[in-house]
Write a structure and sequence with these properties.
15 helices, 38% helix, 7-stranded antiparallel sheet, 17 strands, 17% strand, disordered N terminus, flat, 511 residues, alpha+beta, 3 domains, 3-stranded antiparallel sheet
Length: 511
């Protein structure tokens, strides 16, 4: 029976200890292209696994792999390890500010807004974007795949499917000296088992086509290519036409430089601080526990060497005579001075906030109160800048994702959620929210000032205050205008006898 997992659920197990701080560059050069996973990609895959462990709070195993020291492992194995999952907190803050308020996608005038909304609705893209932002934060990369297929086994018609998949199976082949160029070949490859036999499944994406391969895996090497029938997938061909030139894979780095292909995790310069906080809290916790059950200190002679008194039961020891004590039994307690240790923890947390660009105010831990939304934004400028940096990559990727999905639907004449594309594929305009709570009073004051200054119309003000779309906002603005006109005092018309003008009024005599 075929034992495989959906692409979106593939997870690579660690292949060994991670030495040093790995920030992979994404080289496509392999020492032995038959080895799998590819040797050149091993640092990147190990880093993915390491950072994922940090996100999920499995810090003990993460640092055990990273440090790779027997003495450290033995020492910490005797302690109850305390984890403070700052890593998960940092990623959640970023994802919340990016996608907790759904982005608004609007097709240009020549585009098909109805089809665009059908793509978003059927593929649950708002949810997928949020989940993608979480994993992108901790591993440094995100990957979306567009394909044609039946979303559910009972469906009668195929549709356009957009899915967030793991970048741990993504191996682009491109020019390492021009990492911004679109790779000429992008490979998805993952391992699966049938019985005791191991295989590697490959999807090689090139312009206009996808090549499907299956290889036998023995001793970590792909030894021979086998027939696709081993997969048990009906209708799968060695080569499939996509009918569009663009790739069906959209890679989104978390952030990067122009000299690397893959993104960088939000944790890559923070793991030493995570370790220091956990280590200090672990030591404090274990020391306090050790001294919660003190030993009883009694005068010499109280204990009978013949066993009349059980040392184990009383948990006590003797002190010799002549020590100057009055012979009063007492407990040995350790008056620990932990202020310096707790002070160190406070400083480490401050460093963590600073290096991660996470303002304590965004967590409600800042000093003092923010009197307004504007004041809060000024306090969290670095966090806002960090999220804006992520938006740069997601903005382009979402536009490409929606454009390519529309092209694929048009090329294959497909419906999505019962809607067919009636216009040309377009790249949508994206409106981002800031992810911060709205100070409604402040927002109303701002919009009123804009109205008074003539830089805003009523419909635009309603859209900004209430978050309505353009058409509903215009309808509400028209209703408000009509209501105001009804409430205005009626001016006396021409039939008003008091307003009639005499001939003298119309043609006054000149003196």
């Amino acid at each position: 029976m075929l034992k495989t997992q959906p692409i979106s659920q593939i997870k690579d197990n660690p292949t060994g200890p991670v030495q040093g701080q790995n920030v992979p560059t994404g080289s496509s050069i392999d020492n032995d292209p038959k080895k799998f996973p590819y040797e050149s990609e091993k640092p990147r895959l190990d880093a993915y696994d390491y950072f994922e462990k940090l996100f999920y709070g499995d810090h003990y195993n993460a640092f055990r792999l990273r440090i790779n020291d027997d003495e450290w492992n033995k020492a910490h194995a005797m302690l109850r390890y305390v984890r403070v999952n700052m890593a998960g907190l940092i990623s959640k803050v970023c994802a919340d500010m990016l996608f907790s308020e759904p982005v608004k996608l609007k097709a240009p005038d020549e585009g098909d807004q109805e089809f665009l909304e059908a793509l978003i609705r059927e593929n649950k893209l708002h949810q997928q974007f949020y989940e993608s932002a979480l994993s992108n934060s901790y591993i440094g990369d995100a990957l979306f795949k567009i394909r044609i297929g039946k979303r559910n086994p009972a469906d009668k018609k195929p549709t356009v499917i957009i899915e967030d998949i793991t970048p741990s199976i993504y191996f682009p082949k491109g020019d390492d000296f021009n990492v911004r160029a679109v790779p000429a070949e992008e490979e998805l490859a993952w391992q699966f088992e049938i019985g005791k036999d191991k295989y590697v499944r490959k999807e090689i994406h090139k312009s206009g086509k996808i090549i499907n391969e299956v290889w036998k895996l023995k001793g970590g090497k792909m030894t021979e290519q086998v027939d696709l029938a081993v997969l048990g997938i009906e209708g799968l061909k060695p080569e499939e036409e996509t009918k569009i030139e663009e790739s069906l894979l959209v890679h989104i780095p978390n952030w990067k430089t122009g000299r690397r292909r893959f993104g960088i995790s939000d944790y890559f310069d923070l793991d030493a601080i995570f370790y220091a906080i956990n280590n200090r809290m672990t030591k404090i916790d274990n020391v306090l526990d050790k001294h919660t059950d003190p030993i009883l200190f009694v005068p010499e002679g109280v204990l009978d060497e013949d066993g009349n008194v059980s040392r184990e039961a009383l948990n006590m020891v003797e002190f010799p005579a002549g020590t100057g004590e009055e012979g009063k039994p007492e407990y040995i307690v350790w008056n620990a001075n932990l202020e310096s240790a707790l002070s160190e923890v406070d400083r480490l947390v401050e460093f963590m906030f600073m290096v991660s660009e996470t303002s304590p105010d965004i967590l409600g831990m800042g000093k003092g109160q923010s009197d307004s939304g504007r004041a809060l934004k000024l306090k969290i400028l670095r966090t806002i800048a960090k999220v804006a940096r992520k938006k740069i990559y997601y903005d382009y990727a979402i536009q490409e994702l929606m454009y390519r999905a529309q092209k694929l639907a048009k090329a294959w004449n497909l419906e999505v959620d019962g809607v067919k594309l009636t216009k040309e594929p377009t790249r949508p305009e994206i409106t981002w929210a800031d992810g911060l709570p709205i100070d409604e009073l402040e927002q109303v004051e701002i919009e009123n000032k804009r109205l008074d200054a003539g830089t805003q119309d009523t419909a635009g003000a309603i859209m900004n205050i209430e978050g309505l779309e353009e058409e509903p906002a215009k309808e509400k603005a028209a209703a408000i205008k009509k209501e105001r006109e009804l409430k205005m005092p009626t001016q006396l018309g021409k039939d008003n006898p008091f307003s009639k003008k005499t001939k003298e009024d119309l043609d006054p005599k000149q003196d």
